[in-house]
Amino acid sequence: MKSLIPWRQKENHAVLPWNDDWFDRMWENPFKGLSAPFSKSFSKMLSVDVVEDKNEVTVKAEVPGLTEKDINLSWHDGVLRIRGEKKNEKEEKENGRYYRECSYGSFSRDIRLDDTVDWKKAQAKYKNGVLSVKLPKTESSKKSIQIKVN
Question: Hey, where are the domains in the chain?
Fold first, then answer.
């Protein structure tokens, strides 16, 4: 006698068009594998290098596809914040065809630096998709002090 509940073999992960699970899995995440250029993963792609030497701290961030107007730098309580926002709109009208594509996205990255940085003398440059921020150290932080151990 046959059961009224259909039997499903879970060990076999082959997706067959006639399998009952195929339709259910298709709607779990129909956009799986597709990502906008500025989705949540964009902040993970923001590579930042922080290099410190005797005179300054240099922060380099890769932010391709942006302009200087798209980038916002701020300093608050020892934290350098790099923010960016990109809006891209493309519209074409030709031969009775209308095409429009929009993409928006933003990112923010906080970098904690100590109080030895003179943030008032900070300089930032953006060239070829790389943001470079130079933060000179204060005069008191450049001096080294020898401490004797008793």
Answer: 37-140
Element (H, E) at 70: none
pLDDT at 82 over 80: yes
pLDDT band at 133 (very low <50, low <70, confident <90, very high): very high
What is the bridge-based pairing of β-strands 79-94 and 71-76? antiparallel
Q: Do 34 and 85 contact (CB within 8 A), yes or no? A: no
Give the Cα separation of 98 and 92 in Å (integer): 6
Distance (Å, whole) CA 85 – CA 38: 9
Query: Tokens representing 39?
Result: 């989705």
Tell me the CATH architecture of domain 37-140.
Sandwich (2.60)
User: Rounded to an integer, what distance in angstroms lies between the CA atom of residue 19 and that of residue 129?
Assistant: 48
pTM surpassing 0.70?
A: no
